[in-house]
Write a structure and sequence with these properties.
The structure is a homodimer of 286-residue chains.
Chain A lengths: L6 H16 L3 H16 L7 H16 L6 H24 L3 H11 L13 H11 L8 H10 L3 E4 L5 H9 L7 E5 L10 H6 L7 E4 L14 H9 L2 E5 H8 L6 E6 L3 H7 L6 E5 L5
Helix pairs in contact in A: 1-2, 1-3, 2-3, 4-5, 4-8, 5-8
C-alpha cells in the first residue's frame, strides 16, 4: 500500500505518541516533532506507511540515545501473554475446533500494537483475548486451513511482542517441520525481535530468523538475503498485523494476512469496519 | 495560547481537510500537504495555532489561485442563518430572558467553523441552534450583562460567516451606540469579513471595521492601526470563537470570550468538556 493523504495526520499523531512514550522532556519532544514534520514533508507517497515510521523511529532512538525504548513494554506484554497461555491452550485443546480457536487468539493478540495506540493496557489485552473466544472473525478459515494442509514451506511473519506468544498457539497447530518464523531484524516500536520469539519459546518449536530490517512491516528491499531466500521459497506466507499488510498487500506470493483492522485507511482498503478481526488471502496471488 | 504538541497532528489534519476542501486534484493536495509539513517543521511553538493556520491558508490560496475559496460556504451559511433569523428573533422577543437567549444563540452559532470541521451541514447548524434554546451554557451571564451595562466602548470580535448573523441578535441587545464590530481584514477560512457583516445587516446597526489581518484569530501584531485603536480604547471586548481565544487569552483587557469548545487542548485549558457552550471572562484583566 502507498501512503495516503489520510495517513499523514495519523503518522504525525503516532510520532507524537511515540515521542511522549520515549521521553518526558518537552524540549526534546518539540525537537523530535520538528524533525518528524521535516521528514514527513519530504515523504515519498509511493512508499508504505511503515517506511515513514522506520525513518522516524531511527531518528527518535538516536536523539534519546536508547536503541530499544520499547524494551520494557515488550517484556510486560510477553509476560502477560505467557501468564494467559496455559488457560488459553487448555481451552484450545478442549475445543471442538482447536485450529480455528488458535487462529482467532493469534489475530486478537494483534491488539498489542504500540504504533497505532501507545495506551494499551494489560486489562485491554486480557479482555480482547477473552472476547475473541466467542466472537466470529472475518475471513475464510477453511480456505486457510486447506492452504496449511497443502503447504510444504510456511513462513510466519510475526508482528508484535506479546502477540508473538499468542502466535505460538497457532504455530502449534501448523506442521512444525515446515514452519519458519520471521521477526524484525532490529528493535522498532514494540515489534517482536529474536528475544521475544525466544521468550515465547518459539525457537524451541521451529526455526526463527530475523528479517534484517528495522521497519515496522516487511519492506523487502530492506530485508536480509537469508530472509528473502525464505520469502521466495515459501509456498505459504502467514503475515501478522497492519504493518506487514501495508508492505506486502500487492505481492504475488500466497499470503494470508491476519490482523485487527485499526485504522480507517485499512478499513476502506479492505472493506471491513474498524476493529474487525480479519483473515485475508492476498489478492495478487498468481 | 502557545501551540502545544497536541496541536500539531490536529493542525496537520485541519490542513488536509482544508486542502481537500479547496481542490480535488490529488497531485495538488500532495504538494500542499508537503508544504504544510515543511511550514510546520519550522513552526515557533511560542506562536498561537492561528498563526500557523494563517501561513498555511495563505500558501493554499496562492497554490490554487483563489483568493477566497470559502466564499460559497460563507454565502450558504449566511443565507441559512438569515432564514432562521426571524423565528429566533421572535423567540428572543417573546422570552422572559431575551439577553440570555440572544447570548446563547450567538455562542451556538460558533458551530459554523470550517477550520475545526470541514463537514458542517445546514442541518447540523439548524439542530445546534434549536438545541441551545433549552440548554444551559457554562459561564456567568449576570457578570457579563453587568459588564455590558457599565461599558462605554464595546468592541465585538466576530468569528465566522453565518455565525455573524446570529451575533446580530446579541448585538441588538447591546447599547448600539457603544458598539464596534470587527471582522477579519481579508478572507481566511470561513471567517467573517466586511461582506459578511454587511450581509448580516450589522453595518446598518453599528460601526463595522476589518482588523487588517488574514489570521483566523486576532494576532495584534498583524492588525491595522485602526483596529488597534479600537482595541485599546474599548472598555469591554466581546471575543467570539476559539481562534480569538487562542490569540487573546493572555491579554490584560476586559474580554469576555464566547465559544463552543471544539478541541481537547481548549477543553483542558478551560477545564470544560468538548462541546461546552462557554462564556469566559479574561483571567488577566487588571
Amino acid at each position: 500500500m502507498q501512503t495516503t493523504l489520510d495517513c499523514i495526520p495519523c503518522l504525525v499523531r503516532q510520532s507524537l505518541d511515540a515521542t511522549r512514550f520515549v521521553t518526558e522532556d518537552n524540549d526534546v519532544q518539540q525537537q523530535i516533532m520538528k524533525e518528524v514534520l521535516g521528514v514527513a514533508s519530504k515523504m515519498d507517497f509511493q512508499q508504505s506507511p511503515p517506511a515513514f515510521a522506520q525513518l522516524i523511529h531511527r531518528r527518535l532512538r538516536e536523539i534519546i540515545g536508547d536503541s530499544d525504548p520499547y524494551r520494557k513494554v515488550k517484556e510486560t506484554f510477553n509476560r502477560l501473554a505467557l501468564d494467559l497461555l496455559p488457560d488459553i491452550r487448555h481451552r484450545i485443546t478442549a475445543s471442538a475446533h482447536p485450529f480455528e480457536l488458535a487462529l482467532k487468539v493469534a489475530i486478537a493478540g494483534n491488539v498489542i500494537d504500540f504504533g497505532v495506540n501507545a495506551n494499551i493496557t494489560v486489562d485491554g489485552v486480557r479482555n480482547a483475548i477473552s472476547a475473541i473466544i466467542d466472537s466470529p472473525i472475518q475471513g475464510d478459515i477453511a480456505q486457510f486451513q486447506a492452504a496449511v494442509g497443502k503447504a510444504e514451506r510456511i513462513l510466519y511473519l510475526a508482528d508484535n511482542a506479546g502477540e508473538i506468544v499468542f502466535d505460538r498457539l497457532l504455530i502449534e497447530q501448523l506442521p512444525l517441520k515446515s514452519v519458519t518464523v520471521a521477526v524484525r531484524g532490529n528493535p522498532i516500536l514494540n515489534d517482536a525481535t529474536i528475544e521475544d520469539a525466544e521468550c515465547a519459546g518459539i525457537d524451541q518449536l521451529v526455526k526463527v530468523i530475523g528479517n534484517g530490517s528495522d521497519a515496522p512491516g516487511t519492506i523487502l528491499s530492506d530485508c536480509s538475503n537469508e530472509f528473502l531466500k525464505h520469502f521466495r521459497e515459501a509456498d505459504l506466507i502467514i503475515s501478522k498485523g497492519q504493518g506487514n499488510f501495508e508492505t506486502l498487500s500487492r505481492r504475488p506470493e500466497n499470503i494470508f494476512f491476519m490482523m485487527k483492522v485499526k485504522c480507517q485507511v485499512i478499513a476502506s482498503h479492505t472493506g471491513c469496519p474498524l476493529g474487525t478481526h480479519l483473515l485475508l488471502k492476498s489478492e495478487n496471488h498468481r
